[in-house]
Amino acid sequence: MGDESIRGDRPPAPLHEPLELTEREFLGYQRLVHREAGIWLSPVKRALLVGRVSRRLRELGGISFSAYLKRVEDDDAERVRLLDALCTHETHFFREPRHFELLEREVLPRWRAQGDTGSGEGRRVRVWSAGCSTGEEPFTLAMVLRHHLPAGEGWHIDILATDLSTRILEQARRALWPLDKSREIPKPYLRYMLKGTGSQEGRMKAGPELRSLVRFQRVNLNDGQGVAGRFDMVFCRNVLIYFDAASKARAVERLVGHLSPRGLLFLGHSESLSGLGWRFRTVMPTVYALRTPVIDETATSG
After folding, report:
1. Which of 65, 97, 137, 155 could form an S-S bond across to 25 if both were Cys, CB 3.0 to 4.6 Å?
2. Alpha helices, DSSP H only, in 75-125?
3. Total number of domains constituting the chain
4. In this structure, is residue 2 part of a structural domain?
5. Do 72 and 180 fall into the same domain?
């Protein structure tokens, strides 16, 4: 018995015949995805894996799940493609509005009044949108920050938008969405968007001022490589829900490692830092800050 060829040990499947995934093969994909991305595919995700990977198998001539698993183990580019296919990207502008209410009501007025963010970098604001999907989150942040922290007052804004999926990042870089999405944006912020005409009718695009504030990069939170410096705010919303406990703890440590001492960490509505240590205090549900070290005055007196 020789090694299975790239076409698999089964004949090519007709287009109408569903491809089969054995339990052993599913466990192989489960281990690979967990190792590479920290994402745990529970048994209920088996149908999702079959649905999203089958198209690629047919593009490769109807190869088996087993043959494709061997391919992604040996081929870095194909492995990235597999992870792209398995990532879920559901987002919209001003998602979880209470977060932006906090920014507009408390955080940004305080920064503006004191003339800086308290990070020691003057009027420079650095934000990391981790798991940025198709770009709605980082461009929401760009609108809110630019609106409240004008360039004319010397504020410099840098937003790093990252995702695991290269395909989704390319879409986010275009900063182009169906015009229907304008309904998600409050009226004061619509001036930052351009309405498409001609061949772009029915679409909207982030204006050049917004696009200059956001840069995109592929980052795998499971290894945490490629991100430098500290941020005044880190948004990682509805990402950690896909991790098991150990992967979640590692990802949080990496996120917090890039948080400035007075920075804020924003999670999704169904996520929390419960059980991940005493270092955090809750600003409001799903918004966290590092605890300020308490000085024991009795130890320094006398």
Report:
1. 65
2. 76-86, 97-102, 108-114
3. 2
4. no
5. no
Domain that holds residue 31: 23-86
Is 115 contained in some domain? yes
Q: Strand 259-267 and strand 280-284: pairing?
A: unpaired
Partnered with residue 130 across adjacent β-strands are: 162
Catalytically annotated residues: 52, 163
Number of H helices, E strands in the chain: 11, 10
- CA dist 299 and 302 (Å) reads 8
The string of DSSP codes covering 195-248 is E--GGGTTEEEE-HHHHTTEEEEE--TTT-TT--S-EEEEEE-SSGGGB-HHHH
222 and 75 both lie in a single domain: no
Q: What is the Cα–Cα distance from 92 to 191, expressed in whole angstroms? A: 18
8 is a domain residue: no
- pLDDT per residue as tens, the chain (302 positions): 333 333 344 444 444 444 688 999 999 999 998 888 878 888 888 888 998 899 889 888 888 999 999 999 999 889 888 888 887 667 899 999 999 999 999 999 999 999 999 888 889 999 999 999 999 999 999 999 999 999 999 999 999 999 988 889 999 999 999 999 999 999 999 999 999 999 999 999 999 999 999 999 999 888 878 899 999 999 999 888 888 888 888 899 999 999 999 999 999 988 888 777 678 899 999 999 998 644 433 333 33
